Amino acid sequence: MNGNRSRIILHIDMNAFYCSVHAAEEPDIYKGKPTAVAGSVELRKGIVVTSSYEARSRGVRTGMTVRQATTACPELIVIAPNFDLYRRYSKAFMRIAGNYTPLVEAVSIDECYLDITGSGQFGQPLEIAEEIRRRVRAELSLPCSIGVAPNKLLAKMASDMRKPDAITVLRRRDVPQLLWDKPCQTLYGIGKKTADKLLRMNIRTIGQLAASNEKWLVERFGVYGSWMKRAANGIDDSPVEPIREAAKSIGHTTTLPADLTTREQYRTVLLNLADQTTRRMRRQAMICSTVQITIRDPDMKTITRAAKLDVPTDSTDDVYREACALMDRHWKEGRPVRLLGVTLQGLSAKSETPVQLDLFHYREAPRKEELNKVMDRLRDKYGESAVLTAGMLSDDPSALIRNTKVRGTSLQTDFLREREPGDSDDD
Hints:
Blueprint: E1 9-14, H1 17-25, H2 27-30, E2 35-38, E3 48-51, H3 53-56, H4 66-72, E4 77-79, H5 83-98, E5 104-108, E6 111-115, H6 125-140, E7 144-149, H7 152-161, E8 167-169, H8 175-179, H9 192-200, H10 206-211, H11 214-221, H12 223-232, E9 249-260, H13 263-283, E10 286-296, E11 302-313, H14 316-330, E12 337-345, E13 348-349, H15 359-382, E14 387-388, H16 399-403, E15 405-406, E16 409-410
Parallel strand pairs: 2-4, 7-8
Antiparallel strand pairs: 1-6, 1-7, 2-3, 5-6, 9-12, 10-11, 10-12, 10-13, 14-15, 15-16
């Protein structure tokens, strides 16, 4: 790497991405209208995930309930999320970015960094940024903001300065004039708790943070204190990394359409969450060693509880059983629940992880693994709704096999027999 002063980094941030995608897909219905994407369109406790700029100008904000949003903006059009559609558009704008450099780091579904230091054949940095912005608009009908800077931190800050559909340059020499009079929390990477702690230390602005004694900051924040001082001065050495590290966790949460209060209701939701997360994990050929659940009540109080598994697993019913046990231990039945989540942690490659099984699990594991493979292949072929599991609602693990339904037909145990020579492998 050549050092900060010689690098040229772009940060591309898609504006109101989910709503913009719907407007691109169905402009006659959504373009130029106040829209919001919410987890539950019809029900009172659906949460707004994002909103169009037209909706934001009328007071709609992320985190509002659908009821609050439609009160603020009666003409609001609320849209159910379509993540397959969002992923398709995400891949499309990433492909456009990749035309100008192989150094593209996707940090979320709607933003990425580009290192265009070696991309002079495509023009000057502003010309490249403008060409990308123009192509995303012309080819995908999507707006984006692009920050141009000598490092990732300033590129991210720059893309946030002007929205939507704009290009902003932020150089290190501009930092004192443009950033130092702003509150510390404005600096990307500093959250509210850290900003509050800095405020108690009489450090109110980014400029005051930049001038603070580094040793003093390290004494109070550890190595993070050193990072904060460098960031406040516009310094960031982190490279653009096109190859992401393997996921350290896989999780899914759902905001419930109505408050749940019974054990049976909890378990139905946990079953669905366990199914979704383990299926994603199996796609990556990983197994987990820890299961974590997230619970939120109607007052927005949130807790997380986790347990380490005796044996690492990729099995839905193992994860489901542990999630239920955590719920039973840490949440009193009858107490209302607004949101539930399941996160799988301690991930490792299945092929590289030794698993020691007891006699019971040794006999059960091959059948369970074959069942998972069959169910995954059926879903790959016929769609996610092709297989509906009911058996895990029982405490009997074998009920999973007995009660699994495939398009209305029982998946009998003999379907999982060892194949004879010449048997077809088709589903």
